[in-house]
Amino acid sequence: MNVLITGGMGYIGSHTCVEMLEAGLTPIIIDNLCNARSEVLNRIEHLTQQRPVFLEGDVRDEAFLDSVFAQYDIDSVIHFAGLKAVGESVRKPLEYYDNNVNGSLVLTRCMRKAGVTSLVFSSSATVYGDPQSVPITEQDPTGATTNPYGTSKYMVERCLMDLVHAEPEWSITLLRYFNPVGAHPSGLMGEDPQGTPNNLMPFIAQVAVGRREKLSIFGDDYQTKDGTGVRDYIHVLDLADGHIAALQQVGAKPGLHIFNLGTGQGSSVLDMVNAFSQASGKSIAYELCPRRPGDIAKCWASTDKAQRELGWKAKRSVTEMTADTWRWQSNNPQGY
Ligand code: NAD
Ligand code: WQD
């Protein structure tokens, strides 16, 4: 099966390509490299002994996409490409709507012209906003997003829902990721944020390796077990496997399919600091700071639907997430 992977050089896309190649699927990557390094391709080849096709280009470039669909016999598309930094999205809303929303519209238009109607979209738990209760199910309300990034994901979801309603031959799968972390256990691939990391795990990893002095913990007065925010951290390889399960179980089934991809377990910021400290043998310096605007107290997934309908369940523990992140970070202190 030939699967076009937009954003396949990025963090989640690259791990998904490795898992796909190992499962006998053929990824064809397009990426404009705005947040990725070409070295990723060498690492994928090293791990799988296969070098996927990589075409440098932008998902908003309709002529480029048309040429890709004309050249390759694509069965399905996984659409990872987009911008993902919450804070930056507040400062640059037009860039985020253009990249994430317009990019998705151009992609689906080109898919339609090429007669390709199977799409898996990278959505996010951010579409649930501040949840009324946990665990969050796929039926819970969406749309009360708190920043342009989250709104862009919600808008794309709505566009795709309307598309499948109007043209029922489409198979559209919305995968709502919780908090992806971890790295390939080889230590050859992982998350390589440019500049100061926005997310917790890469920040902790950079403190452990000596690139940053200390972690700021945003809030210790939430209604949680230790006062710090609770999230559903999921290993990036489990997430990658969730995409393969989605392609195989519902990718050829017309209609709209929505799944949470999480573990169903919540961990606090202090849980993650302690787990990382254990995994790395380093103490993680931190200071308690005020809450970060827009943050919620707790968020974790109900995983029942994915388990029931995709036969998929996250397998890897927080211990593996932190150990694999540390192996990647300590082997590649400056990233790729
Ligand atoms: P990433 O930045 O590592 O990967 C995205 C890739 O897309 C990058 O390689 C980038 O160069 C590429 N790209 C961006 N805009 C493009 C464009 N216009 N044309 C072509 N390529 C483009 O991010 P990631 O963490 O791998 O996230 C992948 C997807 O999952 C994103 O859509 C993101 O919003 C979504 N997501 C991520 C998280 C997370 O915490 N990492 C959580 C939920 C959802
Ligand atoms: C996790 C916890 C912070 C950094 C974001 C996006 C979401 C999704 C995943 C894409 C929170 C705390 C963090 C730090 C800290 N991305 N923290 N110090 O906010 O759950 O989700 O990434 O779709 O849309 O919003 O993830 O890793 O930023 O934060 O104390 O330096 O760690 O307050 O409790 P978040 P995160």
Automatic annotation (TrEMBL):
Gene3D superfamilies: NAD(P)-binding Rossmann-like Domain, UDP-galactose 4-epimerase, domain 1. It comes from the Bacteria. Its EC number is 5.1.3.2. InterPro entries: NAD(P)-bd_dom, NAD(P)-bd_dom_sf, UDP_G4E. Pfam families: GDP_Man_Dehyd. One of its GO terms (molecular function) is UDP-glucose 4-epimerase activity. It is an enzyme of class 5 (isomerase). NCBIfam families: galE, PRK10675.1. This is UDP-glucose 4-epimerase. The lineage of its organism: Bacteria, Pseudomonadati, Pseudomonadota, Gammaproteobacteria, Vibrionales. The gene is galE.
